[in-house]
């Protein structure tokens, strides 16, 4: 009896930790609604657009989206639902631009130092 009560206590604690992690993740996701994001899916395609909503299954709805296929093709999509089960990575597009700008600044600085 004591062992099963202890296991139930551990299970309740794990569920509580999981619920807290879910709440934190949901709050972060709500914070990026109406932001430009880039989503990579399992077949290698990327979708870039404005995040409008999500649901409990991690499905994402993007508007004014662009699809980028691995072959280099690009097409405009007015609205797309990206199934959560197929999402490999989701990134804020603004963060990607900041990283690219920072990398460009570092490269320019290194080039200036080499030429000096």
Write the layout of secondary structure elements.
Layout (H helix, E strand, L loop, with lengths): L1 H30 L4 E6 L4 E9 L5 E9 L5 E9 L4 E6 H23 L1
Give an overview in words.
The chain is α+β, with helices and mostly antiparallel strands and 116 residues long. The chain has 2 helices and 5 strands, in the order H-E-E-E-E-E-H. It starts with a helix and ends with a helix. The longest helix has 30 residues, at 2-31. A 5-stranded antiparallel sheet has the order 4-3-2-1-5. It has helices at residues 2-31, 93-115; strands at 36-41, 46-54, 60-68, 74-82, 87-92. Strand 2 and strand 3 (60-68) form a beta hairpin.
Descriptive key words:
single chain, 116 residues, alpha+beta, 5-stranded antiparallel sheet, 2 helices, 34% strand, globular, disordered N terminus
Order of helices and strands: HEEEEEH
**Biggest sheet: strands side by side, in what order?**
4-3-2-1-5
Alpha-beta content class: alpha+beta
SS element count, helices: 2
Summary, kept brief:
46% of the residues lie in helices and 34% in strands. It is an alpha+beta fold and 116 residues long.
